[in-house]
Amino acid sequence: MTDLSNPANWNPATALVHGGTLRSPFGETSEALYLTQGFVYDSAESAEARFKGDEEGFIYSRYANPTVHMFEQRMCVLEGAEDARATASGMAAVASAIGCQVKTGDHIVAAKALFGSCRWVIETLMPAYGIECTLVDGKDLDAWKRAVRPETRVFFLESPTNPTLELCDIAAIADLAHESGAKLVVDNVFATPLQQKPLALGADIVVYSATKHIDGQGRCLGGIVLSDKAWIEESLHDYFRHTGPSLSPFNAWVLLKGLETLPVRVRQQTATAQKLCRYLASHPKVTRAIYPGDASHPQADLANRQMSGGSTLLAFEVEGGKAAAFAFENALRIVRISNNLGDAKSLVTHPATTTHKNLSAEDQIELGISPGLLRLSVGLEHEDDLIADLDQALAATG
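Above: the chain's sequence. Below: its structure in token form.
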């Protein structure tokens, strides 16, 4: 008989309702919201013991808070991680996960296909502190291998990638990282923790922008870094404690509420995304449609191996370049123009002029970000209404 007292034995839907819950003496049903900066102690001796780590309890909400702790623990149950630290945004999670484990003279290897701000952290911020970086084609295992140096400390990738939904072989890249003594950090936001498990595939650290699917309703910012307890305590904790990228308790509470409905939302959004991909792929004004959950994806076999779903996002290219892409966006009536993703509302963006605008034209083309490429985050609207909206917008492209 299954031991249901152990959260590790729960299915994800159950874990996302009950995981990590702490109840006060009042026995509240919903998680309590602790809007406090600090905590008091019964005695001076108790304060000393808590600061030394000899007594359990909270000290200061910059690095530990009951509501934030519940969010961290619930994510650990879902992800299969031993420990986590929640951050104020997804980019705070990325910058902390990388920055806490490198120093001047170290080297990072990262996939070229990254969100624009992630590229900035790798290409601009890290070199400013004497940390060299090499960007590689994330799909090419030989490129990862050739880039390794004796001083390589971190591998970094996102899969599926933003915005072209390419995949990196996480298990194979994790093996390469470990052979060189490096840690693999995976940004798993496009797959969600429900559709891909980087830690189970060999990654060392997983990061999320909780702003996206985890909230999923456009309400707040948040991020999280998950790993084993030793790495969190030895590499991340002091960096996190002293630099202060912490998540607010209120946002943590909102994200806890978002987690309760995450499986229902992602399941519906994924099913609709699959149908929209098929519609777009058959449209004469669409030159390509990209979706990891479709057999037409060039890495469909890898998607089947390392993902349990095809994502809630897709990308497609309209005939006519930037002018046609803008005409399409401006003609939409249900889908809204926004650079956010993972929301209950369907959202579209033009990556070349928004999320990846800082890349050179050459770098954009190398990554498949053409002037006519659009990224669509599929929401919870009825599929027939979304198809009708896409259809009339495509007709407006001329």
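The chain has 15 helices and twelve strands.
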